[in-house]
């Protein structure tokens, strides 16, 4: 059985982690397949939005240390290689220039939480349970969580979540800024589909530049941000999407971005 499934429809590519018997825990093979999938999406013009989810009612329970390819206890070199592979997946997902949405049901813990918050938006069901579970397993953060978490919830809250490995429900996760929306399990598919379809029908260059500007804000001075805004806006103004937006406004119709 493929451990990662990929489907495409209307500019939305859905990537499903597919090990439901292990709550979609990440094996080395899965990390390699996920990274190659994200890289392929980055270069496929027809893929306008990516949705990441898990099979069987869970998002991802983190790294599977029982995997045959997992490092042996005491083997520093193989452990370093394993954790770097997890980080490479999160980095590939975070760097994707197209909008990304995590559709979270059930557990999203450890590296699974890392993959969720590496996406631009997180929509979780009220069944979802999220945790920086690492210290409960005598581990420290990986899969980008040490960088992503403080940017979402602030340094003090990030330390609290990381130190204690508290299990959060979706509504609490929304309240602290970890998750964008919490919906019932029955509403989850429709809510994510609506967001993904709206983004897929949007102006791809403007969405890409908007994502790049916001992601760079943490490491950019105000003057540098102003200059980057000018460069991005000039590219938008010179592109076809702006002409289509103006024409649609004049003709009192919805714009058709990137569609023949």
CATH architectural group of the largest domain:
Alpha-Beta Complex
Report the sheet with the most strands, covering strand number, pairing sense and barrel closure. Answer: 6 strands, mixed
* Count of all domains: 2
Mean pLDDT: 95
**Rg value:** 19 Å
Describe the structure.
The strands form 2 sheets. The protein has a 6-stranded mixed sheet with strand order 1-2-3-4-6-9, with helices on both faces. A 3-stranded mixed sheet has the order 5-7-8. The mean pLDDT is 95. It is globular, with a radius of gyration of 19 Å. The protein folds into 2 domains: 4-200, 2-enoyl-CoA Hydratase, Chain A, domain 1, CATH 3.90.226.10; 204-250. The chain is of the alpha/beta class. It has 10 helices and 9 strands. Strand 2, helix 1 and strand 3 form a beta-alpha-beta unit. Helix content is 48%, strand content 15%.
List keywords for this structure.
48% helix; 3-stranded mixed beta sheet; alpha/beta; globular
Helix-strand blueprint:
Layout: E1 4-9, E2 12-17, H1 28-43, E3 49-54, H2 76-95, E4 100-104, E5 107-109, H3 111-117, E6 121-125, E7 129-131, H4 145-153, H5 155-164, E8 168-169, H6 170-175, E9 181-183, H7 185-200, H8 204-216, H9 222-237, H10 240-250
Parallel strand pairs: 2-3, 3-4, 4-6, 5-7, 6-9
Antiparallel strand pairs: 1-2, 7-8
Helix pairs in contact: 1-2, 4-5, 8-9
């Amino acid at each position: 059985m493929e451990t990662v499934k990929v489907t495409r429809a209307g500019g939305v590519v859905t990537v499903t982690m597919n090990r439901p018997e292990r709550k979609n825990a990440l094996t080395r093979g899965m990390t390699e397949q996920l990274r190659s999938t994200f890289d392929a999406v980055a270069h496929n013009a027809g893929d306008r939005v990516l949705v990441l989810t898990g099979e069987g009612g869970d998002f991802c329970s983190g790294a599977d240390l029982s995997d045959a390819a997992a490092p042996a206890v005491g083997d520093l070199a193989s452990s370093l290689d394993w954790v770097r592979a997890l980080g490479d997946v999160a980095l590939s997902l975070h760097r994707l220039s197209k909008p990304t949405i995590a559709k979270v049901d059930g557990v999203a813990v450890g590296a699974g939480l890392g993959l969720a918050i590496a996406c631009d938006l997180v929509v979780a069901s009220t069944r979802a349970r999220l945790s920086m579970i690492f210290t409960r397993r005598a581990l420290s953060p990986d899969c980008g969580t040490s960088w992503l978490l403080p940017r979402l919830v602030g340094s003090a809250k990030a330390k609290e979540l990381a130190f204690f490995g508290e299990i959060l429900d979706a509504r609490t996760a929304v309240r602290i800024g970890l998750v964008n929306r919490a919906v019932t399990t029955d509403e989850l598919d429709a809510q994510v589909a609506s967001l993904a379809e709206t983004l897929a029908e949007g102006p791809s260059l403007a969405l890409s530049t908007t994502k790049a500007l916001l992601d760079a804000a943490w490491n950019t001075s105000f003057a540098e941000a102003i200059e980057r805004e000018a460069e991005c806006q000039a590219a938008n103004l010179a592109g076809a999407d702006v002409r289509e937006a103006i024409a649609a406004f004049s003709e009192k119709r919805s714009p058709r971005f990137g569609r023949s």
